[in-house]
Amino acid sequence: MRGHEPRSSSSCAACKLLKRRCTPTCIFAPYFRSSDLITFAKVHKVFGASNVSKLLGEVPEEQRQETVNSLAYEAEVRLKDPVYGCIGAIASLQKKMLELQHDLAVARTRLLAHSGVSNHVSPLDNSPELAAFLDLVPYSDLMLLDGSTSLDAYLYDLGQPPFV
Amino acid sequence: MNPKRCAACKYLRRRCPKDCIFAPYFPPNDPAKFACIHRIYGAGNVSKMLQQLPDQTRAEAVESLCFEAKCRVDDPVYGCVGIIHLLQTQIQNAQNELAKTQAEVAVAQTKVGQTQNSDQFM
């Protein structure tokens, strides 16, 4: 006689969406509560339930919540920006980092010029000529980390990941 | 079988039609690219995503999907979100360093100003 698994008292969001019985060993249940249909719907739309199941199966149990968080974030961003997804966010952050590196180089050079203290020398620069150059060259003209020079197409307004 | 099947149709072991949605972006000489994207997203999801995009943006979309898929293969827990987290941390550190350095510049400028003023009265 074929055994059957007991019916769970409430289905997780995944099993609700997939219209199937949610078993006590359901891999999605701990991470997609029944009240969280939208999050699973987004993850399913981008990655597919079976791929998510495989991914979760490949990571240790203690890391599955973090995995789900990052998948949910990626899915959210991909649905908002179907062309660039998280790459848009990465490019935007790289641009910001480049701006800061430029500003820091300028500030360090000015500090050196004012104080004349050699232990403030930046590993990047220590000459008045370079300081003058950095003042004249806007960050937008500097080569970006990926070799591109224009990031307008990549700019994306992004909030903090939930787990930062 | 068409010998010029794209990498996707080769991987999926099917005929590659003339209007195959994958063919322009998955040439047969790079099978790993489709394999990676298929592992994370699945062919059906990628096909749907591409169909919803204008033609001129599909190549960029495929490249970004490939990058994210590769990040996820390399780091199954965080994927490319790990890179985002790292950049945010680096930005925070750089902002703190910049604020500190700018404060030091302000102090140094004040000291220079005070020295110049005291020289005038000597």
UniProtKB/TrEMBL annotation, chain A:
<protein>
    <submittedName>
        <fullName>LOB domain-containing protein 21</fullName>
    </submittedName>
</protein>
<feature type="domain" description="LOB">
    <location>
        <begin position="10"/>
        <end position="111"/>
    </location>
</feature>
<dbReference type="Pfam" id="PF03195">
    <property type="entry name" value="LOB"/>
</dbReference>
<dbReference type="InterPro" id="IPR004883">
    <property type="entry name" value="LOB"/>
</dbReference>
<comment type="similarity">
    <text>Belongs to the LOB domain-containing protein family.</text>
</comment>
From TrEMBL, chain B:
<dbReference type="InterPro" id="IPR004883">
    <property type="entry name" value="LOB"/>
</dbReference>
<keyword id="KW-0175">Coiled coil</keyword>
<comment type="similarity">
    <text>Belongs to the LOB domain-containing protein family.</text>
</comment>
<feature type="coiled-coil region">
    <location>
        <begin position="84"/>
        <end position="111"/>
    </location>
</feature>
<protein>
    <submittedName>
        <fullName>LOB domain-containing protein 24-like</fullName>
    </submittedName>
</protein>
<dbReference type="Pfam" id="PF03195">
    <property type="entry name" value="LOB"/>
</dbReference>
<feature type="domain" description="LOB">
    <location>
        <begin position="4"/>
        <end position="105"/>
    </location>
</feature>
